[in-house]
Amino acid sequence: MAQDHGERRVEPTDGELVERARAGDREAVDVLLQRYQRRLLGVVVGMVRNPDDAREIIQETFVRVFRSLDSFKGDSSFYTWLYRIAMNLAIDHQRREGKRPSVEFDEGVAHTEESVGRGSAVIGTDPFDRVRSRELGQKIFEAIESLTPDHRAVILLREIDGLSYEEISEVLQCSMGTVMSRLHYARKKLQARLQEMM
Amino acid sequence: MTCIQFEESFDRYVDGLLDKTEAAAARAHLACCTTCDRSVTRWQQTRILLSTAVAEVATAVDVSDLASHVHAALDPDRGSSVRPAAYDRAPSSRSGRSAGRVAAQRSARSGSAWWRVGAAASVSAAAAALFVVLMSPVKTPVRLAEAPEPIESTIALASSDYSPPAVDEKATDVDAIEAAPGHMVSTWVHPRSKARVIWVENRTPIENVDFGR
Question: What is the DSSP-derived secondary structure letter of residue A69?
Fold first, then answer.
């Protein structure tokens, strides 16, 4: 899919892939999927916690996006549009489902530096480490769930996907001031909540 | 810089968005204010915990077949009524997969649909699993795959288009069966979408459920 320009391979831009996908290019759809499915997954998992629900939301997001490509005008970037749909689905899911029982983490999940996001906390293979890691993970998700969906969305978009304040305001269709205010509140609340739990 | 000023700059500081002058002032403040310095340290720890916890769950999600399911949902041969919520998953193994994964596919059946249920044995936690599959009269058979892992939490699989009937709306063509003690299976036609809904309600936790035609 990348074009050769001498020795330098240039990856197609999102805009180029969108145009090809509109014309029915299935490969372009696959490239966009590969490009964004994991990125979306992190933030959606943070929103809904349940991996199965997260996968379903990601799938629904891509189906909606590719079904409505003709209506995508390009006044925002493709990925902020994609994120917007995903976050709306995740927020709707949270509001619809209400509080959910905890999802148990799988003890067998390997925890390596490669598997974590920004920053890393390497946990050894000692079973007590795994239990502590698991308990800590539970506490983190409980703390996230103490935030409203709107606050959760802001902090996850910033911390998990590294979106800028401007990009977050575009995704969530709110002002930069609102983004910064929600982010500040969410950080303080998350921190305070974790302090209480530990 | 005062503590109040630092607090106002906190988010931009931890996000690396202060200009050189502001950043220097912030660092100078942190060098002599243990309270503010501690708040930054705590946030950095929280940030690491947050990204680690999310990554641990996210990396365990199998998306290798996501593309095929998206394409299947977009396939024009299926018609515009394709519902993207139904897909197959391979049985999960203990390592690296979350418990209680189930899958559904859309049914070809119109009219009353009786489902043969083979419920398996023991339960590991008290929870009720609720499955809703929204069907439209298309030709692909529905199969709810086995759930090899104990279902420990309430799980609802619902099409994003599904909505319960309103108070004054009545489902039609209702059919129900208690397939096994505590396992109610009913089907009915949604009053607005006219799609057939299969409603499965498990009042006791189940380990394996196999629905077949």
Answer: G
Interchain contact B61–A (C-beta under 8 A)? yes
In chain A, where the domains are located: 1-101, 109-198
**B48 and B115 housed in the same domain:** no
Q: Is the CB of residue B148 less than 8 Å away from at least one CB of chain A?
A: no
- Put simply, whether B125 touches A (Cβ < 8 Å) is no
Rounded CA separation A33/B126 (Å):
38
The answer to whether domain A1-101 and domain A109-198 are alike in fold is no
Distance from CA of B82 to the nearest CA of A (A): 10
Domain A109-198 has CATH 1.10.10.10: yes
Rounded to the nearest angstrom, the gap between the alpha carbon of residue A24 and the centroid of all alpha carbons in its chain is: 27
Interface contact flag, B98 A46, Cβ < 8 Å: no
Tokens of A97: 């489902």
Smallest CA–CA separation between A5 and chain B, in Å? 29
Q: How many domains does chain B have?
A: 2
B74 contact partners, CB below 8 Å, separation of at least 6: A29, A63, A66, A67, B82
What ipTM does this complex have?
Answer: 0.76
What CATH number was assigned to the domain covering residues A1-101?
1.10.1740.10
Residue B71 lies in a domain: no
Structure tokens at B179: 């397939």
CB contact under 8 A, B60 and A106: yes
Across the interface, whether the CB atoms of A59 and B84 are under 8 A apart is answered yes
Would you write out chain A's pLDDT as a tens digit for each of its 198 residues? 555 555 566 889 999 999 999 998 989 999 999 999 999 999 999 999 889 999 999 999 999 999 998 888 877 889 999 999 999 999 998 888 765 434 434 333 333 333 333 333 444 445 556 566 677 778 888 899 899 999 999 999 999 999 999 999 999 999 999 999 999 999 999 888 887 776
Does B147 contact A at CB distance below 8 Å? no
Is B26 in the same domain as B125? no
Q: Which residues contact B168 (CB under 8 A, 6 or more apart)?
A: none
